[in-house]
Amino acid sequence: MRWSSIFLSSLSRSFHRRLHPQSTLNGFEFAQHFFTTEILSSAKEGVLSKRMSPFIAFVLGGPGSGKGTQCTKIADAFGFTHLSAGDLLRKEILSNGENGAMILDTIKEGKIVPSEITVNLIRRAIETSENHKFLIDGFPRSDENRIAFERIVGAEPDIVLFFDCPEEEMVKRVLSRNQGRIDDNIETVKKRLKVFHTLNLPIVNYYSGKGKVHKINAVGTVDEIFEKVRPLFAAFSNNGKD
Ligand SMILES: Nc1ncnc2c1ncn2[C@@H]1O[C@H](COP(=O)(O)OP(=O)(O)O)[C@@H](O)[C@H]1O
Ligand SMILES: O=c1ccn([C@@H]2O[C@H](COP(=O)(O)OP(=O)(O)O)[C@@H](O)[C@H]2O)c(=O)[nH]1
Ligand SMILES: [Mg+2]
Predict the structure, then answer these.
(1) Is the CA virtual torsion 20, 25, 26, 29 positive or negative?
(2) How far is the CA of 160 from the centre of ligand 3 (A)?
(3) Residues 75 and 37 in one domain
(4) N or C, fewer C-beta in 10 Å, the chain?
(5) Which residue range forms the structural domain that includes residue 66?
(6) 142 and 31 within one domain
(7) How many domains, the chain?
(8) Are 129 and 81 in contact (CB under 8 A)?
(9) Which residues form a coiled coil (predicted)?
(10) What's the rounded Cα separation, in Å, for the pair 136 and 166?
(11) Taking phi first (over 0 means left), then psi (-120 to 50 degrees means alpha), and beta for anything else, what does residue 217 get?
(12) Are residues 65 and 162 in the same domain?
């Protein structure tokens, strides 16, 4: 028997005894049990408990209401991972995946991409992140999106931010955004605004009914709006989920 094995066996036995004083396992059984069960399960629990209760904020509002701009500031100030559903979909187009052409057409028309696609992109981003605090920007955009998220990710948002912005201001901002987006033109913006009223707003109402919505007047400078957002996250950062 090698000295290292004896050492590991007795080390694991002493740890195991402390955790399970009644146990009758011998040295090698201790070692096996300790390294396969106790070390592995404690590592797994750490990951799982983090995954099982991530802090999720949905960030909603019409096109150009400032969701992305404010999310960048919240992420910087409070250590959140910013997941923009639109950005995930645009990356999917660029990756030449099987759904790229369909996603491009859908975005061009200002319509909503099938829920399974968007939710799985978000799920993968959450699963591969080391973080446990997420801003999900621009999602859910419909009841169907919301239900698919609950089913596939198995979570609900802790809070929902809603940036309330007049239509003229949203149109003005989108048309001067200058990011080369295929949907930032007046025809598509009109379609997106219709979708916003018919499909996105009912989501805000649904979460209002659950007392989760924080409505923020999105008119003002970026910093003025962030000063209204900041206290919400400061409060949540101190509530033990941080
Ligand atoms: N408070 C604000 N006042 C003026 N322009 C803003 C404000 N917030 C964001 N913008 C600008 O408006 C455009 C849309 O903002 P963005 O954050 O991309 O909105 P959304 O993600 O809701 O579509 C961007 O060009 C951004 O720089
Ligand atoms: O959950 C989502 C998020 C976005 N989109 C599509 O992506 C476009 C752009 O979304 P993004 O959030 O980037 O736009 P924003 O509101 O920030 O201008 C939308 O109009 C939809 O066509 C979608 O189908 N599902
Ligand atoms: Mg955006």
Answers:
(1) negative
(2) 16
(3) no
(4) N
(5) 55-237
(6) no
(7) 2
(8) yes
(9) none
(10) 22
(11) beta
(12) yes
- One domain, residues 123 and 195: yes
Q: Can you state the angle between helices 143-152 and 115-127, rounded to 10 degrees? A: 40
Please check whether residue 242 lies inside any domain of the structure.
no
Would you write out the chain's pLDDT as a tens digit for each of its 242 residues? Answer: 333 333 333 333 333 333 333 343 444 343 333 333 333 333 333 333 444 589 999 999 999 999 999 999 999 999 999 999 999 999 999 998 899 999 999 999 999 999 999 999 999 999 999 999 999 999 999 999 999 999 999 999 999 999 999 999 999 999 999 999 999 999 999 999 999 999 999 999 999 999 999 999 999 999 999 999 999 999 877 654 55
Q: Counting atoms of ligand 1 from 1, which one is nearest the CA of 137?
A: 21
**11 and 82 both lie in a single domain:** no
Measured from the Cβ of residue 35, the count of other Cβ atoms closer than 10 Å reads: 12
Any atom of ligand 2 within 6 Å of the Cβ of 192: yes
Structure tokens at 200: 């996105």
Q: Is there a single domain that holds both residue 38 and residue 62? A: no
Distance 83 CA to ligand 1 centre (A): 16
